[in-house]
């Protein structure tokens, strides 16, 4: 242990791989059964010698009864909680038997739903809001219905004598040139002998130590140290991430009876909301510096999370995913409220890589029984456990109450009255043309099952605007709270507005609007928006055989959990590109389509960083192999979007705002110091013949967008030639190319592209494969790969205008020669996808 029923049965060969084909359906029975785990163990003599012995279960998933040597110890009903039971009186010298009986989560939620129907998401097994278990495990519009069962976190025996640390609260107070680190502890004790609290802080390099002690008075104590000239922790791209070591000891007569260890980043953080000309700002400020949040939304990285803890799963590791987010200049991840509070390793990585965490509490897109005192009491214990566990984290930026539930109450029809037959018929007719009306109608149909919706809405209001923020103010007074995402912090009014708060924008996906619609949006903080793609072909091969390689095949639709998803991809594809010639080309085109759409939005919002303070695209990662909104697929393969993120989240961004024949060039800087360079621009034919050119000196202001030049090509571009000309802007610094961007005067599908001759020169240097690419005509979205191996290139899916040179590197695969790499090298562009 840890272990889960599905993964254990899979390891034993008792079930097929749930991620292959439609095996998800074939293993549905697993979650519908009750299961038992047994283990026999002999406790160490040192443990038995302690005054008290505790059985600590860090995570039981979910409905569990725990017995030791035939005696029931306790029960669990919340996967997010830490359960602790004192068991010394039940332990034997020699062999002991621990038994955990798990009840079916599916049967439980179905039975509760029959008694009291609650609104959930349409792709999920009904009734999930009744159980404190990750909502997405019951199904989502990117996830399978595979609710796991088992011991999903560590389970252990812990012996203690005299006393133990019940709660440890680290805080920091920043002065001009010093930081005071303080600790407050609560102690559980079993004798009256004196106890001492000891605090020890070690510098990041281990060379300096600060110490303080204090006596324990009854059950509590505080201690503090002052650190002069502290090394501050910064988000990725704004500075370094030094981490101080912190040890908190409980001492009795020279014997350490308990100890806790932490890594601590010293920094201040606030959520600045100040009135301005557009409404009210929504800006994260770290160490006094306003941060433009560049990031994405995080979902559980495996449908079976025990595999991540064991490090034995087929998917990407937590380290790989967080590292690759940081590699694309991301500085914030939103831990979405439909999953779970992540394990310590996740936050360790975020602390190390400088990734701020927007932490949702685990409520999402549903109506929960918050009018039940026992349910709220259980959630209170859940909040205590997780806030105490996470509040010392440098990366933890904000607590958010829930995902999209306030929006649901305002806009999704959760609180709508009964409709007359005439009104229902009129809405149904409108729904044929407008997806939001259909969504509203679906919600209204569901709400008829909830005669107590007024009670539930009042309970929602009370919980997320009074109860939960009250708990958090007590447990973590140094962290901002936000009631819901999206929210304007004006309950049930203008929830997804653009004057204040955060916004989710889904009109481009669900609403079928063009990517240009992003430029009509000016939210104060864009916390969700996205567009889907298929996963890379290598990933599709893991779940679909070649006869199933068709967008409307049974298996391809089974691995597309958004009902209209494949059709929406094709519809947007035909608006932008020519129809691909075969399935591999379709996969490639879907990848570049997704990347281009998200790029278009992010570049617009970064140009308006004085008004918009962050963009978190949906989503970073996947929990299984599937068509989705992710930029990293389940195996960690980089989609075109992830490469694009490395460019559009670069600290210094070059972008083009194109309106008809007008081209405005911008440089946006997240640097804390001025930046100078040069923009060289050309109006040229697809084959590189220059029609007009120029260059502009750039003096980019820190933490700001700088308009460089605005050009009108109305005299040069007309209906006759607009399909044969492009605008190219290049950003240079010290004669090195920093970035290249192009804009077209016609949709890419209408460009008169011809097959590019792409020449690649291969060399090796310090274990790196170095490719030098040139082309004789515009090559759009150049994709580079090495057949038979997964590798990450320094750049990929980029535009290569005629006559330009691009150097791309990647680690030479272990054991490979340059000759092998040359034989495995594959290069294609958009032209190859349809010609």
From TrEMBL:
GO cellular component: extracellular region
Gene3D superfamilies: Galactose-binding domain-like, Glycosidases, Immunoglobulins
PANTHER family, per the entry: BETA-MANNOSIDASE
Span of domain Glycoside hydrolase family 2 immunoglobulin-like beta-sandwich: 164-267
Residue span, Beta-mannosidase Ig-fold domain: 753-833
E.C. designation(s): 3.2.1.25
Top enzyme class: hydrolase
Protein name as it appears in the record: Beta-mannosidase B
Ranges of residues in domain Beta-mannosidase-like galactose-binding: 1-153
Signal peptide residues on this chain, from the entry's feature table: none
Record keywords: Glycoprotein, Glycosidase, Hydrolase, Secreted
Highest taxon in the source lineage: Bacteria
Subunit relationships: Homodimer.
Pathway connected to this protein: Glycan metabolism; N-glycan degradation
């Amino acid at each position: 242990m840890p272990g889960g029923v599905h993964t254990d049965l899979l390891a034993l060969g008792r079930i097929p791989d749930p991620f292959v084909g439609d095996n998800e359906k074939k293993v549905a029975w697993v979650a519908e059964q009750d299961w038992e785990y047994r283990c026999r163990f002999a406790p160490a003599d040192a443990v038995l010698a302690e005054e008290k012995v505790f059985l600590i279960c860090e995570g039981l998933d979910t409905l569990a009864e725990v017995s030791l040597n035939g005696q029931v110890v306790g029960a669990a009903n919340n996967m997010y909680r830490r359960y602790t039971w004192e068991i010394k009186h039940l332990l034997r010298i020699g062999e002991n038997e621990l038994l955990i009986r798990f009840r079916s989560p599916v049967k439980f939620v179905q039975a509760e739903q029959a008694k009291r129907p609650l609104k959930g998401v349409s792709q999920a097994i009904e009734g999930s809001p009744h159980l404190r278990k990750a909502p997405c495990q019951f199904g989502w519009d990117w996830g399978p219905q595979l609710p796991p069962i088992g011991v999903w976190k560590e389970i252990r025996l812990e012996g203690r004598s005299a006393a133990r640390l019940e709660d440890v609260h680290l805080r920091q107070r920043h002065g001009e040139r010093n930081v005071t680190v303080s600790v407050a502890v609560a102690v559980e004790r079993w004798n009256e002998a004196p106890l001492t609290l000891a605090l020890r802080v070690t510098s990041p390099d281990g060379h300096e130590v600060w110490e303080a002690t204090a006596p324990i008075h009854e059950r509590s104590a505080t201690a503090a140290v002052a650190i002069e000239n502290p090394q501050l922790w910064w988000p990725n791209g704004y500075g370094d991430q030094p981490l101080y070591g912190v040890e908190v000891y409980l001492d009795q007569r020279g014997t350490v009876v308990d100890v806790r260890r932490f890594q601590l980043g010293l920094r201040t953080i606030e959520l600045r909301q100040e009135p301005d000309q557009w409404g009210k700002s929504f800006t994260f400020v770290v160490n006094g510096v306003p941060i433009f949040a560049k990031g994405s939304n995080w979902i559980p990285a495996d449908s079976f999370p025990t595999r991540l803890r064991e490090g034995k799963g087929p998917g990407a590791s937590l380290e790989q995913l967080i590292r690759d987010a940081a590699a694309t200049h991301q500085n914030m991840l939103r831990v979405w409220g439909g999953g779970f509070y992540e394990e310590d390793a996740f936050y360790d990585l975020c602390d190390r890589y400088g990734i701020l965490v927007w932490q949702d509490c685990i409520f999402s897109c549903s109506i929960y029984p918050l009018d039940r005192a026992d349910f709220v009491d259980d959630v209170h214990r859940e909040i205590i456990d997780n806030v105490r566990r996470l509040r010392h984290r440098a990366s933890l930026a904000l607590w958010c109450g829930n995902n999209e539930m306030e929006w649901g109450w305002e806009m999704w029809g959760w609180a709508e009255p009964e409709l007359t037959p005439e009104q229902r018929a009129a809405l149904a007719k409108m729904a044929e043309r407008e997806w939001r009306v259909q969504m509203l109608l679906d919600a209204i149909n569901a709400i008829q099952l909830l005669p107590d919706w007024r009670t539930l809405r009042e309970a929602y209001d009370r919980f997320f605007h009074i109860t939960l923020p009250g708990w958090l103010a007590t447990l973590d007074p140094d962290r901002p709270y936000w009631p819901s995402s999206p929210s304007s912090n004006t309950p049930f009014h203008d929830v997804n507005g653009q004057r204040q708060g955060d916004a989710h924008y889904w009109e481009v996906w669900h609403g079928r609007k063009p990517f240009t619609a992003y430029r009509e949006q000016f939210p104060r903080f864009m916390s969700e928006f996205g567009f889907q793609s298929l996963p890379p072909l290598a990933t599709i091969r893991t779940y679909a055989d070649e006869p199933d390689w068709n967008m409307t095949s049974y298996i391809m639709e089974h691995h597309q959990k958004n009902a209209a998803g494949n059709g929406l991809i094709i519809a947007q594809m035909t608006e932008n590109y020519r129809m691909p010639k075969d399935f591999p080309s379709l996969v490639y085109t879907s990848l570049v389509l997704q990347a281009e759409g998200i790029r278009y939005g992010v570049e617009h919002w970064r140009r308006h960083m004085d008004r918009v303070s962050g963009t978190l695209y949906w989503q970073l990662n996947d929990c299984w192999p599937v068509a989705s909104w992710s930029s990293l697929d389940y195996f960690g393969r980089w989609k075109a979007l992830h490469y694009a993120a490395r460019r559009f989240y670069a600290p210094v961004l070059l972008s083009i705002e194109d309106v008809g024949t007008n081209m405005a060039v911008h440089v946006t800087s997240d640097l804390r110091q001025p930046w100078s360079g040069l923009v060289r621009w050309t109006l040229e034919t697809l084959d590189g013949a220059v029609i007009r050119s120029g260059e502009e000196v750039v003096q980019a202001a820190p933490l700001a967008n700088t308009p460089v030049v605005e050009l009108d090509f109305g005299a040069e571009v007309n209906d006759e030639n607009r399909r044969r000309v492009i605008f190219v802007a290049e950003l240079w610094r010290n004669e090195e190319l920093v970035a290249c961007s192009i804009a077209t005067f016609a949709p890419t599908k209408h460009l008169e592209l011809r097959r590019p001759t792409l020449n690649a020169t291969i060399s090796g240097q310090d274990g790196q494969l170095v490719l030098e690419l040139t082309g004789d005509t515009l090559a759009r979205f150049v994709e580079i790969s090495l057949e038979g191996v997964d590798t990450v290139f320094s750049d990929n899916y980029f535009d290569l205008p005629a006559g330009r040179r691009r150097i791309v590197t990647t680690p030479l695969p272990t054991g490979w020669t340059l000759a092998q790499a040359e034989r495995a090298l594959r290069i294609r562009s958009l032209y190859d996808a349809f010609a």
